[in-house]
Amino acid sequence: MNKDVPGGSSGPAARPPTMADVARRAEVGKQTVSNALNKPELLRPETLARVKAAIEELGYRPHTAARSLRRRESRTIGFALERSVAGRSNAVNDRFLHALAAAAGYRLLVFSVDSREQEIERYDELLGEQAVDAFVLDRTATDDPRHRWLHDRSVPFAAFGRSWSDEDFGDWVDVDGAAGIEAATEHLVAAGHRKIGLLSWPAGSGTGDDRTQGWRRTMKRHGLPARGLTAATANRPDVARRAAGTLLDKGVTAIVAVSDALALGCYDALRERGQRPGADVAVTGFDDSPFAELLDPPLTSVEQPLEEAATECVRMLVERIADPRRPYEQRLLTPRLVVRDSSGPAAAGA
Questions:
Q1: pLDDT above 50 for 260
Q2: Pfam families recorded for this chain (predicted)?
């Protein structure tokens, strides 16, 4: 590749030449390059030859997937499914995937990955094979490298989840986790609880930090104590059980968990002490997983509007492909608290 093309080094991390690079080399507009690729009969022979020479010289690989989606010749979206920890199903991921499959009649190419790095490698392979047109991302994290990689290559994508970065580029739709946790905490306050603990993930998780802020805001609004009433743990019921125990040792009458998996840990911790969720200590979760209403007692949880999120992701993808220069769109959806028996009222005098 010519040395004056940005990203001229080889490998997945290098920026490949773009249509703009070809246009500059051939001394034409980008629309002329597009015509050379899609409607060569519109160009004069000498112009077409000049553009083709620039394409060959630069090694430009047109993103045929985006063109095919515009033409509706192919409607395939790539989606990476992260392997579940310890063989457990990720209920939210599964529900979103089913909703995505039903949105707008698009075909999905689902592939399994173990890490962000492996996911990016698969992106590169699938684009090279012209197997997909665009990608939907989920499980976004602080400074998520996938956003930058796709953005730099002008690959259409939409994310279910914020980028949690100072460089907030890309289209995304997310659920307002802070609002969901606020609703759960407000529900417990209305039930008479005054010492409400929070079971969250370690700091640094964008989603977890956002949900934590919802609890802090509600506690502050009601003038309730928050210092020392938080515990952080991995998103696994077995380790969450120990963290929940530290909150119970402090005499909390209710625990707000930022996921249903953490709420399960609260159930286990209470039963170890001969106590019952909802009767002795109230517990709420987040995600309204399929098992939530099957627990004993059924778990109060925050339901995410996953069908709407999936539909919005597809819509953003279509609009991005139709107008690559349009401003990035970000949208927060409001979740809904589903009240069940696990969030009973505080005992008299608690």
A1: yes
A2: LacI, Peripla_BP_3
